[in-house]
Every structure is written in structure tokens, then in C-alpha cells.
Amino acid sequence: MSILEAKGLTISYGDNPIIDNLNLTIPKGKITVLIGSNGCGKSTLLRTIARLMKPRTGSVLLDGDEIAKLPTKEISRRMSILPQGPVAPEGLTIRQLVRQGRYPHQSWLKQWSREDERMVQLALQSTQLSELADRPVDALSGGQRQRAWIAMTLAQGTELLLLDEPTTYLDMSHQIDILDLLFELNEKEHRTIVMVLHDLNLACRYAHHVVAVHNKSIYAQGRPEDIVTREMVQTVFQMDCEIAVDPLFGTPLCIPYGRGRKIHDEQRYGHLA
Predict the structure, then answer these.
(1) pLDDT digits over 196-215, tens only?
(2) Which domains does the chain have, with CATH numbers?
(3) Which of 69, 93, 192, 196 is deepest in the core (most CB within 10 A)?
(4) Which residues contact 246 (CB under 8 A, 6 or more apart)?
(5) What CA–CA distance (Å, rounded) separates 81 from 162?
């Protein structure tokens, strides 16, 4: 059984539909990545299935329950969302931020507990932030700050994590660092992860399931090896390319055409002579 589904989803800004009559099934226990050109609606789709936006028509089901009818706290106990570019209040420490993830589990009758503290400590350990826990979030590097926000979502203790462009504004090293962390969470804890990524090659490397959004709907979905083709890239991204095999991971590798500096064969392969 899938953990998250969208049925007949239409999402609009005013009278302009961004997503039209879309059906989507997110496989449980896998990493799903939404890809597509800028403005295609992939972030809008993610926000809608997280109930941050209301669709014009259609429904989103979480384990068979329509999320529009569920209490907010119940959704937060079953699904966590990290929006793009979150901002923490000035001076807030990592530990204080991560503790916010336990808010859905609090009530007048159930205050802070040992279980809450255990989940916070576990989230800090999983993101390798235990030694920095008392440092202000606004004093962190970009990669550390993103880890702190991911730690907050982990503290919620949900099986389902939704992340909108978690590697945006990060350099290459920090992008890999964050994606490796999410991959480990999926491998070790079997978390279902859904995220939006701009980098097609990173999407192919880390995703079990890729959803290509185009023309207000889904152009293709499935394993990267099955759907990432030259024709798909031409249609979805309006870009000519060659698709090779990543020499390290065996996943599809998109090599775009362009007018970059070309290296002559003797320069390219001279070190092998």
C-alpha cells in the first residue's frame, strides 16, 4: 500500500491552473524526487500534498485518509515538511529549533517527556549536530543550517518527510552531504522521502522513484533507469543532451549540449597515455 496519493488534483493560482487533473502515487519506504523545468509546478505540487496549499479539485490521501479532513496536529505526527529557505528567529539555538519538532506531540495533558527528549537527542545525533546543539542557528554555515532544519523534521518522528529543494544555495560539497544524510535515513530507518531537486544527475543518483512534471501533469514516473532518456529531457527541459551511465553509480548521467570550452582528445586522454 502506498503511503501518499493524489487523485484528480488540480491546483491553481487564480484562474490559471498550474497542475491539472493529476494522479500520483508515492511508493512507501522509497526516495521519490520531483523534477521538471522552472515554473512547472513541482514545488506547488509538493506544498499541496503537504496540505500547505488547497487544491481547486481532487484529494490527497495519507494512508487512505483524506488529509483535508484530518486535524493539523495529526498530520504533523504522520508527515513532516521542510519548505524552501526556512528562517529561524534570531538567536535561536539548534537545540531549541529541534525541540520545535516535538510540538505536535504536546498537549495540556501531555507536556515535555523523556520520549520527547530522546527524540531530540536522536535527531541531533542522526544529523551530527550534538556538539553544536547550543550554537545559534544564524551562526551556522549553509550546510549546518540545513542539517538543523532536517533535525527538526526528524524530531517529529514521522515516517514521511517532504523537502522542497533541500540543496538550494548550497555548494557541491554540502549538497552531497545533505543528500547522503537523507539517503542514510531512508536506508537505515526506512523513511519515505519526497523532495524537489533541480539537479537531474543528483536526482538519478539518489532517487528510487522519479516523477517528471511537465505541461501541468506527470510526463513520466518510475525508476531513473527507466524514464530518464534523451527524449524525456528534450520534452521536459527543452534541452538537447546525451544520456550516459554514471561511472561510479551506474545511474543515468545527463550530458547537456552547449557552447562550453571543448577539450581536444590529446588533452582529455593524455594522462592515460
Answers:
(1) 999 999 999 999 999 999 99
(2) 1-70+159-238 (3.40.50.300), 90-157 (no CATH)
(3) 196
(4) 201, 204, 205, 252, 253
(5) 5
